[in-house]
Fold this sequence. Notes:
The protein is of the alpha/beta class. The chain has helices spanning 4-15, 24-29, 33-40, 79-85, 101-116, 128-133, 258-271, 274-308, 325-336, 341-367, 371-382, 393-399, 404-407, 418-425, 483-492, 513-592, 602-610, and strands spanning 73-77, 92-93, 96-97, 124-126, 159-164, 179-183, 186-189, 199-207, 237-247, 254-255, 369-370, 415-417, 443-445. The longest helix has 80 residues, at 513-592.
Amino acid sequence: xxxxxxxxxxxxxxxxxxxxxxxxxxxxxxxxxxxxxxxxxxxxxxxxxxxxxxxxxxxxxxxxxxxxxxxxxxxxxxxxxxxxxxxxxxxxxxxxxxxxxxxxxxxxxxxxxxxxxxxxxxxxxxxxxxxxxxxxxxxxxxxxxxxxxxxxxxxxxxxxxxxxxxxxxxxxxxxxxxxxxxxxxxxxxxxxxxxxxxxxxxxxxxxxxxxxxxxxxxxxxxxxxxxxxxxxxxxxxxxxxxxxxxxxxxxxxxxxxxxxxxxxxxxxxxxxxxxxxxxxxxxxxxxxxxxxxxxxxxxxxxxxxxxxxxxxxxxxxxxxxxxxxxxxxxxxxxxxxxxxxxxxxxxxxxxxxxxxxxxxxxxxxxxxxxxxxxxxxxxxxxxxxxxxxxxxxxxxxxxxxxxxxxxxxxxxxxxxxxxxxxxxxxxxxxxxxxxxxxxxxxxxxxxxxxxxxxxxxxxxxxxxxxxxxxxxxxxxxxxxxxxxxxxxxxxxxxxxxxxxxxxxxxxxxxxxxxxxxxxxxxxxxxxxxxxxxxxxxxxxxxxxxxxxxxxxxxxxxxxxxxxxxxxxxxxxxxxxxxxxxxxxxxxxxxxxxxxxxxxxxxxxxxxxxxx
Length: 611
């Protein structure tokens, strides 16, 4: 029997799509794989240091050294951000918010933790409370920057989480912001990227030989140093901080419940485009509403005909041959009483529930941005990753800037690691000892042979696999790292230990925000429909009670008339029988020639007396 790990590897081999990732050095500055390989061999690359392999975090040799990854990467939350962005979350119930600041902070913390869960070198620490305690938790864009750290926020934090202040352009794709951050105190700025910037990661970096650097070589997580062939320190770009910003503008909306909304995003791939998926959902919505409208149209037509044309004899309550307004209203109630209350309830539900589900449940998931996925994506930029799905867009931004000569002459390529990709495709666990000391030696451009290409990917211009680092992250179905992202981590931050991860770990949290809202928007209209129908039925029952009383009174009158008529009939019959006996007796007397004695015919005597 196969072990659980072997089963997982076998399953991965069957469904593994194309792998292709790219570093920020490649996507922004056009660093070539051959140049990076030469730099890792301590050979000259022929490029300026800003365009060489870099923009990574240092791994200190001393356990007590807090430089770079040492002691974890600290971050602090700008307390003003919650006030700015809280209203942009559309997971509410008729305007009543279900999300508070702690929920938003927790989403960012989960995003940091998802990167940390996939590499033992990555740890992230929230120092916001420490900054609050020291009175240092403030900074741009709401206040003047503090001078103790380039990001201007709390100096205890290496990453400042704050509000994005940027003008929006048309488009719906979240792209890396045009600035790649601060390099030795100078903003490194390219041309404005296309698309709507909903979140940005601006790394704060320095050259390893700059005055702000410790003056020691950059050290990779495999223990190798960035050195030249003669052992001298190589000048590379080292990231040591950053600004993580979220757009809180009126043209942006967010959601938190990634687990619930993932199914709606999957519709985009299933139908080939976001527009087709939306057309399908709105078509079903209008179709169900049309059924409800049709049902009530039939009901109203029947009621209208009953009170105007098809009036019945029972509707003329006073029997005068004319129908008063009251009698016509009563006729409408008689028609309504013929309809099943459950059917009427169903028609109301069809009118209310589909549009509420579409507008309040589907639209926020479909049109808004996944806040946790956005944070997860931008953290990847801090770690040195670029967008694998929009080469050469980011590179072109810098070829048209002051750094034209540094970025030219050729854009970078999407990459894959030949050993890792082949082992995973073959269903075996990669042996990190084979490549971790020189992780770039087996890196190649493009996608690995035999890899399965995701043909349903939206707006794909060339083969890539699903990755959290895609620019088009509004279409990502899950807020998790993908195998592509993990392969990139294995190259940028190689782990030579026995427990290096090659399958992504993702701790999913079901916030039940979507389930709660779904239940409300189904139950609330259902209860309303039931109460409405019950109210109408109460009126109908009151009418039917009055109608019963009216008919009972009418029946009693008819019964009394019938009994009076019966008594009269009996009297007349008795009198007729008496006359008949008198006539018979009289005939007998005439035939006998005798006179009947007195009192023999009381009826006659009675009649005589009366005369």
